[in-house]
Amino acid sequence: MSGTNSERELIAEGPAVILVEPQLGENIGMVARAMANFGLAELRLVNPRDGWPSEKARSAASKADHVIDATKVYETLEEAINDLNFVYATTARERYGFKPVRSPVTAAETLRKKFVEGAKTGILFGRERWGLTNEEVALADEIVTFPVNPAFASLNIAQAVLLMSYEWMKSGMADLGQTPFDAVQQRPSTKEQVLGLFEHVEEALDARGYFHPPEKKPKMVDNLRAVLSRRSFSEQEISVFRGIIRSLDKFPRRWPPKAKTAEAGGVEEHDGDE
Amino acid sequence: MSGTNSERELIAEGPAVILVEPQLGENIGMVARAMANFGLAELRLVNPRDGWPSEKARSAASKADHVIDATKVYETLEEAINDLNFVYATTARERYGFKPVRSPVTAAETLRKKFVEGAKTGILFGRERWGLTNEEVALADEIVTFPVNPAFASLNIAQAVLLMSYEWMKSGMADLGQTPFDAVQQRPSTKEQVLGLFEHVEEALDARGYFHPPEKKPKMVDNLRAVLSRRSFSEQEISVFRGIIRSLDKFPRRWPPKAKTAEAGGVEEHDGDE
């Protein structure tokens, strides 16, 4: 199912997202939505330009009401991080200081580790136009920065929060290849099924004089079998192929070919010379 | 330095981003910006609701003009992917089919590998409100889906493009070594060749009344296409399959079936209920 689903588990834990002097309510709302998408829930605003609450923020949050409703407002960054144990500052610019600079993946792993240990953490995001001041960065423990196109490096605040939230979610997964749902399980075919396919195809083709001239037949059969076996078709695939062959083999055409298909018949490659 | 910097190297390569029937110019612009942030440059639009070019898109792209200027518009999804070798469909919903479902990390690694091998690739993104249809997903090789909060799963289109673009960029940083080529070199097929196979098989089957009852035809076609596309057949494989179908389709049997093959014909599984 897509979209918001109130019957599913609502994940709402992890680092606080702290926006320093955000200007547009729309951006705050999109930040809330991105957080909700990836299981974060604690939003803190330092001195938002247009005040709080904000109807524009609620509207842009697309029903991430649990984030909007719990948002707290602070007058200074110091107050906003007072109760936290470990804080990242996000920045696109190189800073002069000594602070370790981490990728989003490493930062998310660090935040996850501290979360598991029971520490309270946070991530700072700067103003829309010019980010965090050096003094604000100085309040953080480490810096996180994004791997961007050097010639086109500006991420907006909601995008930056989205990427950090996404990495946070991934850091909690055992396997990065894990997906919320999977394809239909395919049963591997047995050799008997593969040979059944070979014989079925070959007999149907033979009955039409496909293997011509006769002395070339062994090589043509070899090639045909190579093509039909190299993908290790599943039981279901073999079953579908045999259904196709049976239908084409058994029943006469009821209608003449359409022009399009007749024209498409130019690819002929069964002479075994590949 | 943050922001756009024309003196730095502009990365502009990799998979095409294909938006199917996007509605808002703002979203198209934010998609272009997200692509530019992470080094992608080829944007394709299928039947955009408000036409193209779009001033709203250009404005929302925040100077990602190289992406906006090169954007191409197509009337159908088939035309938009005809020249590509390998295509991902993004979806939040579980689909019934055979297609492998990948995480963004795995998908980006696959796209990077194919890029290094010289294949042309693309990623499909659906409409703002309801994504891709099953028929559209059927045209892709594999599915990619995002690890989201189950109770708050809706990503907007620009967010989804941002995450895939970000993973694309990361896949290039991790993969500094060359990916070795396979021993036997197969040319990847184009979507035009895959669609040609679909139409060839379907017409030949239709002419025999295979799709029965008629109301089940769309589902049966879906399943057939899923089976015929999930392996990303090479040009050579498609050519062989078409040779088989053409032979079975065009020529009548000269001899009655042998007992063995007739007996093997018990596997019938084309009713689309898998």
The gross shape of chain A turns out to be elongated
Helix content of chain A: 40-55%
User: What is the class of the largest domain in chain A in the CATH system?
Assistant: Alpha Beta
Biggest β-sheet of chain A, characterized? Answer: 7 strands, parallel
CATH topology of the largest domain in chain A: Alpha/beta knot
What Rg of chain A do the Cα atoms give?
30 Å
Please give the CATH architecture of the largest domain in chain A: 3-Layer(aba) Sandwich
Which strand order spans the largest sheet of chain A, edge to edge or round the barrel? Answer: 3-2-1-6-4-7-5
Tell me the series of helices and strands of chain A, N- to C-terminal: EHEHHEHEEHEHEHHHHH
How confident overall, as mean pLDDT of chain A?
85
CATH superfamily of the largest domain in chain A: SPOUT methyltransferase, trefoil knot domain
Beta-strand fraction estimate of chain A: 5-15%
Biggest interface: A-B, 98 and 99 residues
What oligomeric arrangement do these chains adopt?
homodimer
Tally the helices of chain A: what do you get? Answer: 11
Low-confidence stretches of chain A: 260-274
